[in-house]
Design goal:
The protein contains 15 helices and no strands. By secondary structure, the protein is mostly helical.
């Protein structure tokens, strides 16, 4: 391989730039829409229900995204979905104030999460096609870091836009972001070989799902165990943060929208730091030692829970919530990138998209349950927020202990010679 091919090429850079623009649009939407809903309803339980419902299409359509990623030009998928997202937000902009708030938000969020579920497998499956195998971990870290950077800027800028001009300004900016991203992606060239066999979409989904599950069950059963670990974290840790951060800052601590934006920006900073550290220490990280990052997540969560015990000073509790949330995001990101790189490098190229989609679907099944759970817990136990968070930390510790046993099966370089 010559030096030019060893470096990241033009098309990978186009994906990165397109992701910056598209994910920034997503970032301000993910900040503003839930905040607006929480402000309008004042119910953490309803907030959790709507958020959970919005994830259901993402779970189903992630499988379709994997099928499309392996059978359709990935560039066309990204371009089409960015244009469609712009159309969805435009429709929301028009019908806001005409339709009832909760149904409109539920439908819109379901569409947006469904689009994301179809979109992300195409992005992830593009990485092995555009960069050399030895650069996949770095490329995955860069894509993850771009997402974290957009999530950092999104809430902060979204908070300012929302505070000054309201939600309409958020919608206008996001529409422009998705349109710009789609136009940029038109210039992408991603290697693609069209399947000679002609099958219906339904038959393709069925066959690809069977092929993916066969690969996971018989060739890489350890991937299924990793799915259980990450699904558990989504159920008891990610869902707690997703529902808990807005509810605690807005309802429990009675702080401003801008402070919520800062905290969510700091959570994204944690993801950026995790991505940077992964790229920086790429040669030293070992998948069989990755459980240490889950132990850190559990420890940080317990500290957060202790800091949120009753009779605390609101601004001090806000600082604890923000700092520990940022630390959790850094540690979890370092774990996730390593596991994704293992799947990408150990899955045949013709299966990468569908296997990633299958894994994402299995993992995401726990998120709606977790968001429903924590929406109810934060409402019913509104005077015991610290205990709820501490319980999440203890369960996360048990998950970390389980993961340590699983990850021992990996070799030093991520191979599974002992499985």
């Amino acid at each position: 391989m010559n030096e030019k091919k060893a470096k990241f090429g033009k098309d990978f850079l186009l994906i990165v730039i397109g992701q910056i623009v598209s994910l920034f649009g997503n970032g301000i939407l993910r900040f503003a829409l839930p905040l607006y809903l929480l402000r309008e309803t004042g119910s953490s339980a309803l907030f959790g229900i709507v958020t959970a419902c919005s994830l259901l299409p993402m779970i189903v359509l992630s499988l379709l995204g994997g099928v499309l990623a392996d059978n359709v030009n990935k560039r066309n998928i990204m371009v089409g979905l960015d244009f469609f997202t712009a159309a969805v937000i435009t429709a929301f902009y028009i019908f806001k104030g005409i339709m009832p708030t909760v149904p409109l938000f539920t439908i819109t969020l379901m569409l947006l999460y469904g689009i994301s579920g179809t979109y992300q497998p195409a992005v992830q499956a593009s990485i092995p096609a555009l960069v050399p195998k030895e650069r996949i971990l770095s490329a995955s870290a860069i894509v993850n870091q771009i997402g974290a950077l957009a999530n950092f800027m999104g809430p902060i800028i979204g908070g300012m836009l929302y505070g000054v001009w309201g939600i309409k300004s958020i919608l206008q900016v996001s529409i422009m972001c998705f349109l710009l991203s789609a136009v940029m992606e038109l210039f992408l060239v991603i290697p693609f070989q069209k399947q000679a066999e002609k099958r219906s979409i339904g038959e393709t989904v069925k066959n690809d799902l069977r092929e993916s599950l066969h690969f996971l069950r018989l060739e890489k059963p350890i991937f299924i165990k990793l799915c259980i670990v990450i699904a558990g974290l989504n159920l008891f840790l990610s869902s707690m943060i997703t529902i808990g951060v807005p509810v605690i800052i807005i309802d429990t601590l009675s702080l401003t929208d801008q402070m919520l934006g800062i905290t969510q920006g700091l959570l994204a900073v944690g993801g950026i730091v995790g991505g940077l550290l992964t790229a920086l220490f790429e040669k030293k990280l070992r998948p069989n030692k990755a459980s240490v990052f889950l132990y850190l997540c559990a420890g940080f969560t317990c500290v957060m829970g202790l800091g949120m015990m009753p009779q605390g000073v609101p601004l001090f509790q806000y600082a604890i919530l923000s700092c520990m949330g940022m630390a959790i995001m850094a540690a979890s990101t370092m774990f996730s990138i390593q596991m994704l790189a293992v799947v990408q490098t150990q899955t045949p190229s013709h299966l990468v998209g569908k296997v990633i989609a299958c894994i994402m679907t299995l993992i995401m099944c726990s998120q709606p349950v977790g968001q429903l759970l924590y929406g109810l817990l934060f409402e019913v136990l509104s005077q015991s927020i610290g205990a709820v968070i501490l319980g999440s930390g203890i369960i996360s510790l048990l998950i970390a202990m389980y993961s340590k046993k699983i990850l021992k099966q990996f070799g030093e370089n991520g191979d599974m010679s002992t499985v």
